[in-house]
Amino acid sequence: MLRKKYGFIWLKWIAAVLLLIGVLAGCANDKTSSTPKEEAKEKKGGYKVALSNSFTGNSWRSQMVKIFEAYAQKQKEAGKISEFFSSSSGNDPQAQINEIRNMISKGYDAIVVNAASPTALAPVLNEAVDRGIVVVAFDNTVDSNKVYNVNTDQVEFGRLQAEWLVEQMGGKGNILLIKGVEGIQIDKDRDKGHREVLAKYPDIKILQEGFGNYDDATTSVVINNMLSAHKSKGIDGILTQGGGENAIVEALKQNKIDPASIPLTGEMLNGLFKHMKESNVKAFATGQPPYLSASALDVALKVLDGEKVDKKTIIPLPTADNNDVDKWYAPGQPDNFYVDWTNPENSFGLKIEDILK
Amino acid sequence: MNNQALLFRRNKEAVLAFGILLLILVLFALNQNDFFTRYGPQSIFNQVITLSIASLAQTLTVLTKGIDLSIGSMIGLTNSIAATYMEPISQKAGSQAAGILLTVIIVLAAGCLAGFINGAIIVYGRLQPIIVTLATASVYGGIALYIRPTPGGMVPYQYTEILTGRIFDILPASAVVLAVFIFLVWFPLRRSSLGQSLYAIGGNEYSAFVSGINIDRTKLWAYTLSGLFSACAGLLLTAQTASGDPLGSSLFTLNSIAAVVLGGTSLAGGKGGYMGAVAGASILSLVLGLLIFWGVPSFYQNAVQGVILLLALSVGLLPKIKIKSLQRTG
């Protein structure tokens, strides 16, 4: 008998709450759904913005998030933004979809996204756009014509690296080519850029090529094999997409080759700049800049202010070689620190301390 | 005994989970700015639906004192099949509706087959479910990668709209799907002799055997249905993401176990039910939303999920500890 009574009570509670939700949902008008857009058009500033990131756990991602927060804080102090928030869901599309659903509910004026999947997030982001929210995807962009995409040109990445190397070598000589991860789009794009340039210089000969997986461990094996096979032929340059610069410099030293004697390409990583500074390595660096998050926020703010912006924004790649080493090198930071924490002209007005805290 | 009392008695383990869920919903009402519009419930139900269905699959195997570690892989596999073949099949079939229907049937059949293979190896190979499903999880994940080496593919816009949109512009489609699974799938199943057998086997396999229950056939059913409902979850995930990802759904395995346990179903089998698992799945899916509303940094998000799980488990253990200490002192 007692049990029966309890059963009634808690079932009734659930039924009541569910009914309440249903009734309120049913009779509510969609006033809130149409206002954000109109308000945004009127108020010019004081926007609420959110960053939805997917994967965390490498230095690029954590720097990217910190740069977003530091820049958003600057904009908040300037009165442009009233509130900002960043969240990382992990590399799980369903979790990021839920994250974005809640950001929509929270009523952000703009959502900046580094997507876990180019396709999986499209439906929920389209829904956000339909409800008047400005959505800007960057780095891992989204296949949707409703969303603003901000990225760099990875073919240009390859072109810049190869052009510099060819110039250093005077247009002729032997090179080693170390690519990235086999089969991924970034590797294909960068490789395309390399080959576009190399095709113009028939006097440059690729002695051997291999995949370095953008890390020191894999690159170390690849470069050591290459050096033992081709050392005697004379190597005039090393063209790598980046990520394994430490391993290359070490391998050269072990093979009794002065690393300063062979020009090499790489990414905007502190380790490479350390070698430029300490071992006089001649090198050129470019990279996917972590400040893309700040660039994406810029795009979002422009759109909110009513400016006309292209759906696709290409951010110029930052570049540096051994002549610029003092401008970029960050002593005391780990080798995997990305030295391009702000764009060359520092239009975001950031200081390195803002990123490090 | 009348119906309500029976319903309560069968779901009493879930009271705690429903209590937490109620609290979360109240907090949502206070913090989710569009809670009282037609978008709020739609957002909530879309967040909970996939895991809720995946946890139905897990509930059935856990009730028999088993476990299914291949649920995430089966969801990934069916998701990949749906996203890869729905468009081509629609074109071949000549009409979108026929193509969608045909693909759904193929996907459900694939899920049944995957589940049946799990069940057959467990029952006829006399092997532990935890090992078998761990192994088949890799196999199904591999097949998914073969079908769809990279995330992508596409499904018709209508398909996404039907399963994640609103019916008559008010009622969230996900709510209807969840209601169908509770009222038209779970309740009849619970009442059927198969449902009774699942509980009996989990409670005490030997007694069940002595009582004349066909253990092998019941277990085979449990794993086959687990595959079928994983395929349903895969179809829902396809609607949510409008694409396929062979490996993106691996977290569903552990989350479904967490949801089932949070809902009061005993991993020792025979106790609990789906109602609790729905509450558990909803809690796990929605609690992160609160942290987002409150602007809590994401490092804490996983930790909070874990703490809730631990708390729920320890509260469930309290009566047992009391009895033990009474036994010791008395």
UniProtKB/TrEMBL annotation, chain A:
The protein's UniProt keywords, in alphabetical order, are:
Signal
Name the coiled-coil region(s).
none
Where in the cell is the protein located?
A: Cell envelope
- Chief location bin: other
- Under the cellular component aspect of Gene Ontology, which terms does the record hold? cell envelope
Looking at the record, the residues that make up the Periplasmic binding protein domain are: 49-308
Q: Which PROSITE patterns match?
A: PROKAR_LIPOPROTEIN
The reply to whether Signal figures as a keyword in the UniProt entry is yes
Family annotation (Pfam families): Peripla_BP_4
One term of GO molecular function: carbohydrate binding
Q: Which domain of life does this protein belong to?
A: Bacteria
Q: Which family does it belong to?
A: Belongs to the bacterial solute-binding protein 2 family.
This chain belongs to the protein called Ribose ABC transporter
